[in-house]
Each structure stands twice: as structure tokens, then as C-alpha cells.
Design a protein that fits this description.
Elements lengths: L16 E5 L2 H4 L10 H7 L16 H15 L3 E5 L2 H5 L4 H12 L3 E7 L13 H17 L5 E6 L1 H10 L14 H20 L4 E7 L3 E3 L4 H24 L14 H8 L6 E4 L4 E4 L6 E3 L2 E3 L6 E3 L16 H14 L6 E5 L10 H19 L4 E7 L18 E3 L6 E3 L1 H13 L1
Parallel strand pairs: 1-2, 1-13, 2-3, 3-4, 4-5, 5-7, 6-8, 7-12, 12-13
Antiparallel strand pairs: 8-11, 9-10, 14-15
The chain binds 5-hydroxymethyl-3,4-dihydroxypiperidine.
Length: 436
């Protein structure tokens, strides 16, 4: 709804895809109706999840998906990004996605499944190359079952975070602290992506992307040491995952650290994409290493890293402590266009959102409003952006934070599982109406 604080948003192009995102492990629950994932095992270890919770019930979406599809329809989104639980499919539960996709289609909401959003079946391991082959077989199974109704596919969600938090720093499942020895997990996920693209294409899919998290990296100063540290961080978080996909090569010095026949794998990894998904939350301000304890977004960082993360001063922060920097989205997208040129396919913002408590969530409205304006500036600057998905439809299980961080447009009472649309839900609905 347009107010003095939020005048009407500029018009986005006809056919622009408007959506919201969720992921299986964060909302589905019904854990006893599927096989276990690495996240079930991780959450069962004392001290891993801040509030001691698990995702066994979460939003109970598996049993309440009709109510959630009705919320999507009422919101007026054209698309819904959800993820398919590989453990659920392995244990014979693919029928749930059949029903979900049917209900979405009946409601006029385009289903956009992500095939992997961190809930690896327990027993599989991204350090093993074989996991990539298994992923391709699973992708073929899902495409065979849903491909008659699903056009738009996402292979992986945020392999960067899954590698960094899960394999390098050990604060997400599977809880490994391998630091730079975690790089094979990144390579095997990228290989899995490429093999899955081939499997999806073989099943007739023509609209395939990936959801990668990216953000601008700002040097803490113009000093050479800070600039070099920021460049290193940019390689780690951005280029390590975008260069192989879009250019068919790793940044200098990285390929040598990867396992297997990297040159042959890169040909698979660089299978052409129909679009490129960007998850954006905030930029990083990076400087040379500093003495003393370091952290990133509340995650303690080990000593000895060749960079340090610095506070972005003078900005509001979300409940998670993340700085609110809408223009970082414009900078990121125009920077990607400049860096990758015509190798960059059309872009879709596959996640953007913020954690705040409460149902009258004016801060979330301000956050989304600011980011949509920033996105429009990227369009004006010539970036081919085709869609925008809010993270998230529902408050959910926010990984190691448990249920304390609320990203939803819809409030979930985790005692009763009652859904209550927040002020931001009403605001976004009006935005979507005005864009029709
Ligand atoms: O909740 C996560 C999501 O699973 C992946 N992207 C970032 C979100 C907020 O932390």
C-alpha cells in the first residue's frame, strides 16, 4: 500500500516474475514421514541449534500445505519457490510434491522447485564425488514425476553457504571445520549442478537456473592490504561459485585445490543456464586480518584467516544484526553484468528478505520497499532482471538459529502452528496488485 513513507514503486516489466521462497527442511516438518538428513543428525547434537529446537515439526507445511497455497493465492504471487527434500523422495514421499504442484497450478501459482536446499540425505557426503552422480539421478527422478507441470527449475541453493557454514566453519550441518580443505565440497556441489542440468534437459526442461548467494565486498579502506583482503573475500564468496558456472573456469589459484579432473568437470559445471538466481542480503566490508576474536553475522571465525570482516557503520541492522543496504543490490547486479557481460543470462533475485520480530513489521516493509527500488535501478541501468522472490513466505526453522529469527511475511505461532499474515504481507499484496 502506497503511503507517504512508501510512495508507489516504479513499474516493473510486463511478465516480471513475482514470488516468495521457502525450503523443505525449514517448513515441512513431517520428519517421521521421510528418511533422515544431515540436518536431523546435526540438530540432535546438544548445543548445535541455539534454542535447542529441531525441524521435526517446523511449520507442519506437509500437513497444512493447502492453507499455505491459499495464502500464496491470496497474496497474488505469480510463482512460489520451494525445495524438494531429497530424503523425502528417497523414502518414497515424492507424492507430497505431486499434490503441492497440483494445488499450486490450480491456484494459478507457478511452481519453482529447488532440488537441493542443504538437507542432504544422511549417509551422503559432499566430500565424495559420487554424491554428484547420485544428485543427477535424483534430479532425473523428480523431473520425471513433476516435469509435466513444472517449467522452471533450480538445481542448488547457496552452495557457498553450505560449503562455508557446513564444511569449513562447522556451524551448519554436517558440522565440519575443514577451513580451506572444504573446497572439494564446493566442487562436488558445482559438479552436481552441472550433471543435474544435463539430467533436467534430458527430461525436456528448458528453464533452468541456480540460486547463488552474492554480495558486494567493500574494502575497509583504500590501503593495499584491505583492498587485497576484500578481493580475496570476493573470490571466496562470489567468484568461486559464479566464475565456473558462467566462465567455465575457477578464479586463479583455486582450480589447483580442487579434486579430480577439474578441466573435464568444468565443462559439465558450465552447462549453459537459462537464468541465474541471486540471493542478496547485504554487502560485506572486509579488511586485512586483525588481532582478537572475529565473527561474521554472529558466526565465530577462526584465527589465521587472510581477511577480517568489519562493521558497516551508519546503517540500520536487522534482528540478525545484518546491515540494511538496498543499494548493494544495484551494485551487485550491475557489477555482475560488467564482470560477466554476455555470459550472464537473465537474472532472477531468488531470495531477499530480513529477520524482524512482530506482526506489525514496518521494518520489513521498509527493507523490501528499499530493495525493490534498488532492483529497479539495476533494471534501469540495463541489467536483464526477470523476477524477484521474497525470503520468506512463513517464519520458519532458521537453521542454527532455530525459531528465533523470523523472516516470514506470515507469522507462525510455533506452539499452535497458526498462521497470521503480517503487515508486510498486506503491503506486498498491494505492491503486486499495483504491478498487474
Ligand atoms: O533461511 C536462509 C535460507 O535457507 C538460505 N538463504 C538465507 C536465508 C536467511 O538466512
Amino acid at each position: 500500500m502506497a503511503t507517504d513513507a512508501h510512495p508507489p514503486l516504479p513499474r516493473f516489466p510486463a511478465g516480471f516474475l513475482w514470488g516468495v521462497s521457502t525450503s523443505a527442511h525449514q517448513i515441512e516438518g513431517a520428519a517421521d514421514e521421510r528418511g533422515p538428513s544431515v540436518w536431523d543428525a546435526f540438530a540432535a547434537e546438544p548445543g548445535r541449534i541455539k534454542d535447542g529446537s529441531t525441524a521435526a515439526v517446523a511449520c507442519d507445511h506437509c500437513h497444512r500445505h493447502r492453507e499455505d497455497v491459499a495464502l500464496l493465492a491470496d497474496l497474488g504471487v505469480s510463482a512460489y519457490r520451494f525445495s524438494v527434500s531429497w530424503p523425502r523422495v528417497l523414502s518414497g514421499g515424492i507424492g507430497f510434491y505431486d499434490r503441492l504442484v497440483d494445488d499450486l497450478c490450480a491456484a494459478g501459482v507457478r511452481p519453482v522447485p529447488t532440488l537441493f536446499h542443504w538437507d542432504l540425505p544422511l549417509g551422503l557426503d559432499w566430500l565424495e564425488r559420487d554424491t554428484a552422480e547420485r544428485f543427477a539421478a535424483y534430479a532425473a527422478t523428480v523431473a520425471g514425476r513433476l516435469g509435466d507441470r513444472v517449467q522452471k527449475w533450480i538445481t542448488l541453493n547457496e552452495p557457498a553457504e553450505h560449503t562455508l557454514l557446513g564444511h569449513a566453519l562447522g556451524v551448519h550441518a554436517p558440522g565440519r571445520r575443514l577451513l580451506f580443505d572444504a573446497l572439494p565440497a564446493a566442487h562436488h556441489q558445482l559438479l552436481a549442478h552441472g550433471l543435474a542440468v544435463r539430467a533436467l534437459r534430458a527430461s525436456g526442461a528448458t528453464d533452468i537456473g541456480i540460486a547463488n548467494s552474492h554480495g558486494p565486498t567493500w574494502p575497509a579502506s583504500g590501503e593495499k592490504e584491505d583492498v587485497e583482503a576484500a578481493e580475496f573475500y570476493d573470490v571466496l564468496l562470489n567468484r568461486l561459485f559464479a566464475d565456473p558456472l558462467l566462465l567455465g573456469r575457477y578464479p586463479d589459484g583455486v582450480g589447483e585445490l580442487m579434486p579430480g579432473d577439474v578441466a573435464a568437470d568444468l565443462e559439465v559445471i558450465a552447462e549453459p543456464l537459462d537464468w541465474y538466481g541471486v540471493n542478496y542480503y547485504a554487502p560485506a566490508r572486509v579488511g586485512a586480518p586483525q588481532a582478537g576474536p572475529a565473527e561474521s553475522g554472529g558466526v565465530p571465525l577462526p584465527a589465521g584467516l587472510p581477511f577480517s570482516l568489519r562493521e558497516i557503520e551508519g546503517r540500520p541492522v536487522t534482528d540478525f544484526g545484518w546491515p540494511v543496504v538496498p543499494e548493494g543490490l544495484t551494485e551487485l547486479l550491475t557489477g555482475f553484468r560488467d564482470r560477466y557481460g554476455d555470459r550472464l543470462p537473465p537474472v532472477v533475485v531468488t531470495e531477499n528478505g530480513c529477520s524482524y520480530p512482530g506482526v506489525d513489521d514496518q521494518e520489513r516493509i521498509a527493507y523490501l520497499d528499499g530493495h525493490l527500488r534498488a532492483l529497479h535501478r539495476a533494471l534501469e541501468a540495463g541489467v536483464d532482471v526477470r523476477g524477484y522472490f521474497v525470503w520468506s513466505l512463513l517464519d520458519n526453522f532458521e537453521w542454527a538459529e532455530g525459531y528465533a529469527r523470523r523472516f516470514g511475511l506470515v507469522h507462525v505461532d510455533f506452539a499452535t502452528l497458526e498462521r497470521t499474515p503480517k503487515a508486510s504481507y498486506g503491503w506486498f499484496r498491494e505492491v503486486l496488485r499495483a504491478q498487474r
